[in-house]
Automatic annotation (TrEMBL):
<feature type="domain" description="Ketosynthase family 3 (KS3)">
    <location>
        <begin position="1"/>
        <end position="408"/>
    </location>
</feature>
<dbReference type="InterPro" id="IPR017568">
    <property type="entry name" value="3-oxoacyl-ACP_synth-2"/>
</dbReference>
<keyword id="KW-0275">Fatty acid biosynthesis</keyword>
<feature type="active site" description="For beta-ketoacyl synthase activity">
    <location>
        <position position="161"/>
    </location>
</feature>
<dbReference type="InterPro" id="IPR014031">
    <property type="entry name" value="Ketoacyl_synth_C"/>
</dbReference>
<dbReference type="GO" id="GO:0006633">
    <property type="term" value="P:fatty acid biosynthetic process"/>
</dbReference>
<protein>
    <recommendedName>
        <fullName>3-oxoacyl-[acyl-carrier-protein] synthase 2</fullName>
        <ecNumber>2.3.1.179</ecNumber>
    </recommendedName>
</protein>
<keyword id="KW-0808">Transferase</keyword>
<dbReference type="GO" id="GO:0004315">
    <property type="term" value="F:3-oxoacyl-[acyl-carrier-protein] synthase activity"/>
</dbReference>
<dbReference type="InterPro" id="IPR016039">
    <property type="entry name" value="Thiolase-like"/>
</dbReference>
<dbReference type="InterPro" id="IPR018201">
    <property type="entry name" value="Ketoacyl_synth_AS"/>
</dbReference>
<keyword id="KW-0012">Acyltransferase</keyword>
<dbReference type="Pfam" id="PF02801">
    <property type="entry name" value="Ketoacyl-synt_C"/>
</dbReference>
<comment type="pathway">
    <text>Lipid metabolism; fatty acid biosynthesis.</text>
</comment>
<comment type="similarity">
    <text>Belongs to the thiolase-like superfamily. Beta-ketoacyl-ACP synthases family.</text>
</comment>
<comment type="function">
    <text>Involved in the type II fatty acid elongation cycle. Catalyzes the elongation of a wide range of acyl-ACP by the addition of two carbons from malonyl-ACP to an acyl acceptor. Can efficiently catalyze the conversion of palmitoleoyl-ACP (cis-hexadec-9-enoyl-ACP) to cis-vaccenoyl-ACP (cis-octadec-11-enoyl-ACP), an essential step in the thermal regulation of fatty acid composition.</text>
</comment>
<dbReference type="InterPro" id="IPR000794">
    <property type="entry name" value="Beta-ketoacyl_synthase"/>
</dbReference>
Length: 412
C-alpha cells in the first residue's frame, strides 16, 4: 500500500494567522474568544465568537482579487500559501497531477446575507454578479487551485462540521489509490454573521456567556452551556512517501488511518452513546492496524455542548475500554471555538504538531469535572508525553462522523 505523509502545514485560526503563532496560542491554553467586532450585535442574543480580527488577504492576493473572493476562500488561500511554502512547493514545482480537496460546511453565508439585503433594499439591478461565486463552498478548492495551477483532482467535501476531516481522509485515499502523489487538503470556514449567530442561538446550541467570552468555550466542563462560533482554515500537504523521499522533503508525520460513519439517527443530535463516532474511531484504528492501547492522544471534537461532550466521552470509552484512562484527550475548541467546516482541518494541524513535538495541548477552561465525562482531558496546561500515535475526531449535523489516525514516521 502506498504510504501517505504530511510534508506541509498551513493555518489561519483564532489565536494566530500562521503555524507558529496558532500553535503557541493553543499550547498556552489562552482563549481567543472575544466580543464580535465585524458587525453590530445589539439585537443578537449571542455577541461573542472566535473572530480573526487581524486577518487581511489583500497582501497575499492583492486588493482586486481579494474583493472577488469570499472570506472563507481568502482564509483557504492564506493557509494554502503557508502549507505549500512549508512543503517547499510553488507554482513552478507543482506537477499537473497535484490536487486540492478542501472541506467547507457552509461557504459564503455572510456574503449571501449581504447580497440578499442589496436585492431587497436596492433592487435586482444592484446585485453583484459575484453573488454565486461568493456563496458556493467548492470555491475554496477551485480558487486555491487557480492561484497555484493545481490541475489534479479538485473537490469539495461538505459534511457539516466533519468536512475538514473527511476532506483529509478522502485526499489520502486518492494518493493511496495512485490518482496523484500530492494533495493539498483540509478545511476552511468563515460563517460568523448575524444570520448564523441568530440561527444557532435559536437552536440553543451557542454559549450565551457574553460577559465572560474567554471562558465561554469550555469543552467537557460541567458548566459548559454551548459552543462558540469560530472561523479559519487549516490545510495539510499530503504526499506519497516515496515521492516525498525523492525530493528530500521534511516529513511531520504519517497519516495511517481513516474511519467514517453515519449515525442514521437525527438531524442535529449524535446517536445514543456516541455509537456512530465510536464506529468511526474503530474504522480508523482498523485501517491503521492499531489496537486502542497504542494511541497516546485524541484531539476530540469536544464542542462544549452538553450532549456532544458526553456522547463523545462514551464513544471513546466504548472503543478504548480500560485503556481509555491512559489516553490524553483534549479539545482545542476551548481556545478557538468551533470553526465548523474548518474544524477538522485546523485540529488535524494541531494533532500533527502534537505528534511532531510530543506535546499535548490543554483543554482550555476545563475546571469542573462532569461525571458523564470521566476521561483525562489535559486540564490546566500542555503536557509533555511521547505521542507516537494520535487521533483527531469530528462529527457533523446529519450524523456524519470521521476520525483520522496520525503517527510518527516508522520504518523510514
Amino acid at each position: 500500500m502506498r504510504r501517505v505523509v504530511i510534508t506541509g502545514l498551513g493555518i489561519v485560526a483564532p489565536g494566530g494567522c500562521d503555524l507558529a503563532s496558532a500553535w503557541s496560542t493553543v499550547v498556552s491554553g489562552k482563549s481567543a474568544i472575544r466580543p464580535i467586532e465585524r458587525f453590530a450585535t445589539d439585537e443578537l442574543p449571542v455577541r461573542i465568537a472566535g473572530e480573526i480580527t487581524e486577518f487581511d488577504a489583500s497582501e497575499l492576493l492583492g486588493v482586486k482579487t481579494a474583493r472577488q473572493s469570499s472570506r472563507f476562500v481568502q482564509m483557504a488561500c492564506q493557509a494554502a500559501d503557508e502549507a505549500l511554502k512549508d512543503a517547499a512547493y510553488n507554482r513552478e514545482t507543482l506537477a499537473d497531477d497535484c490536487g486540492c480537496l478542501i472541506g467547507v460546511a457552509i461557504g459564503g453565508l455572510g456574503e449571501i446575507e449581504d447580497c440578499s439585503l442589496v436585492l431587497h433594499e436596492r433592487g435586482a439591478g444592484k446585485v453583484s454578479p459575484l453573488t454565486l461565486p461568493y456563496a458556493i463552498p467548492n470555491m475554496a478548492s477551485g480558487f486555491v487551485a487557480i492561484q497555484y495551477g493545481m490541475k489534479g483532482p479538485n473537490l469539495c467535501v461538505a459534511t457539516a462540521c466533519a468536512s475538514g476531516t473527511h476532506a483529509i481522509g478522502e485526499a489520502a485515499r486518492m494518493i493511496r489509490d495512485g490518482q496523484c502523489d500530492m494533495m493539498l487538503t483540509g478545511g476552511a470556514e468563515a460563517a460568523i454573521c448575524p444570520l448564523s449567530i441568530a440561527s444557532f442561538a435559536k437552536m440553543r446550541a451557542l454559549s450565551r456567556n457574553n460577559d465572560s467570552p474567554e471562558s465561554a468555550s469550555r469543552p467537557f466542563d460541567a458548566d459548559r452551556d454551548g459552543f462558540v462560533m469560530g472561523e479559519g482554515a487549516g490545510l495539510l500537504v499530503l504526499e506519497e512517501y516515496e515521492h516525498a523521499l525523492a525530493r528530500d522533503a521534511k516529513i511531520y508525520a504519517e497519516l495511517i488511518g481513516y474511519g467514517l460513519t453515519g449515525d442514521a439517527y437525527h438531524l442535529t443530535s449524535p446517536s445514543p452513546e456516541g455509537d456512530g463516532l465510536a464506529r468511526a474511531i474503530r474504522g480508523a484504528l482498523q485501517t491503521a492496524r492499531l489496537t486502542p492501547d497504542q494511541v497516546d492522544y485524541i484531539n476530540a471534537h469536544g464542542t462544549s455542548t452538553p450532549t456532544n461532550d458526553t456522547l463523545e466521552s462514551q464513544a471513546i470509552q466504548s472503543v478504548f475500554g480500560d485503556a481509555a484512562q491512559d489516553v490524553s484527550v483534549s479539545s482545542t475548541k476551548g481556545v478557538t471555538g468551533h470553526c465548523l467546516g474548518a474544524a477538522g482541518g485546523i485540529e488535524a494541524v494541531y494533532t500533527v504538531m502534537a505528534v511532531q513535538n510530543d506535546l499535548v495541548p490543554p483543554t482550555a477552561n476545563y475546571q469542573t469535572p462532569d461525571p458523564t465525562c470521566p476521561l483525562d482531558y489535559t486540564a490546566g496546561e500542555a503536557r509533555k508525553r511521547t505521542v507516537n500515535v494520535a487521533l483527531s475526531n469530528s462529527s457533523g449535523f446529519g450524523g456524519q462522523n470521521g476520525c483520522l489516525a496520525f503517527s510518527k514516521l516508522t520504518n523510514p
